[in-house]
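Researcher: I'm preparing a figure for a lab meeting and need a structural model of a single chain. I don't have an experimental structure, so a prediction will have to do for now. The sequence is pasted below. Please return the structure as tokens so I can convert it later.
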Amino acid sequence: MAKKARTGRTIINITLTELRALALLRRSKGLFGSEIVHLSNGSIPRGSVYVLLKRLEEKGYVSEEIVEASADYNLDRRLYRVSSNGKRLLDSLAHEFGFSWNPAPN
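Model: Understood. Here is the structure written out token by token.
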């Protein structure tokens, strides 16, 4: 069920699972869906990660890039990144609820 977070005058409709994915993406330069599943320690299941990422992309919080097949991985893959709108959302929530993002060093 989606929680509605009030930031200033705006109400944002986002699930906790979507926030987890955004937070993981914010801490990186980009992740593949399988990496998000791994880094979430099971809180984002493999069977729903791509549906979740598509929803975040439709909301404008995530962008995707097709990474062409290579010698290491013989299929095209989708690399996901937090968009500028996603960063603004996370910053706004951090300000509203009094915490700061501490991105992991890259």
